[in-house]
Design brief:
110 residues, mainly alpha, Reverse transcriptase zinc-binding domain-containing protein
Length: 110
């Protein structure tokens, strides 16, 4: 069953957001103990983001509150001035809590 699930995961064109961090199903399993409601939204791109809400007809506007045209996971994670403090704290956490191999993998996925 796992092999079938892994094959579907690897070959499915959907899930591009999570696949940047977890190219294979086994990679995704490492996150399982740490996944929260908010983290799952960020990893999948499905959640309270303007881009998602607009795409599925829940909103007629995908603009970020900072004024950027599209409020996407990528924008919030890397560019939005409103999430700058979160980015700073994330950078501190990732530099002190992750070994260099996993850190390199995470940073190269971006």
């Amino acid at each position: 069953m796992y092999n079938n699930w892994s094959t579907v995961y690897d070959n499915d064109p959907a899930g591009t957001t999570i696949k940047t961090l977890c190219p294979h199903l086994n990679d995704a399993r490492r996150f399982a103990p740490y996944v929260s409601f908010w983290l799952s939204q960020s990893l999948t791109g499905h959640g309270q983001f303007g881009q998602f809400l607009y795409r599925f007809g829940f909103s007629d506007d995908q603009t970020c509150q900072c004024g950027h045209d599209i409020q996407s996971v990528h924008h919030l994670r890397f560019d939005c001035p409103l999430t700058g403090r979160l980015r700073y704290h994330y950078s501190l956490a990732i530099s002190s809590c992750v070994n260099i191999i996993d850190r390199t993998k995470m940073e190269s996925a971006n």
